Amino acid sequence: MPLTSSVPGEVPAVSDETFAREVLQSDTPVLVDFWAEWCPHCRMVGQVVAEIAEERAGSLTVRSFNADENPTTMLTYRVMALPTLLLFRDGQPVLSIVGARSKARILSDLDAALAD
Q1: Keywords, A to Z (predicted)?
Q2: Does residue 3 fall inside a structural domain?
Q3: CA separation for the pair 89, 23 (Å, rounded)
Q4: Which member of 14, 74, 83, 105 lies 3.0 to 4.6 Å from 63 by CB, making a disulfide possible if both were Cys?
């Protein structure tokens, strides 16, 4: 199944069905952007995440995840607010960022989590 983007210019999307393969089994760390159409802050964070995906291509995989269309993964990882960014490394969540943040703050948090 090919990856699809939720909105032009955004990163490839994953779903409940593709999450394990695309995120948990990835050889590189994966940043997942949990979002919804009705969430205005999600659009702002989505733009930043798309920039990070482009800048970190090769060392970080970035995926978007439509929360409204994929309830199983939302429950599994207890995502209760949007936007939420989860960083996975070796199939495990290692960082959670809830709410809108600046690009500099997101990058700082990512770098700190990946340095461990």
Answers
A1: Disulfide bond, Electron transport, Redox-active center, Transport
A2: no
A3: 9
A4: 14
**Contact of 23 with 88, CB cutoff 8 Å:** yes
E strand or H helix at 79? none
What does the pLDDT look like over 76-88, one tens digit per residue?
999 999 999 999 9
- CATH number of the domain enclosing 92: 3.40.30.10
Task: Give the residue numbers annotated as catalytic, written as ranges.
Answer: 39, 42
Identify the domain containing residue 100 by its residue range: 13-115
pTM recorded for the entire structure = 0.89
Which residue's structure tokens are 């920039």? 51
Domain count, the chain: 1
CB 63 within 8 A of CB 22: yes
In a domain, 4, yes or no: no
Give pairs for 78-82: CB < 8 Å, separation 24+: 79/34, 82/34, 82/35, 82/36, 82/39, 82/41, 82/42
Task: Find where tokens 């495990």 sit.
Answer: 92
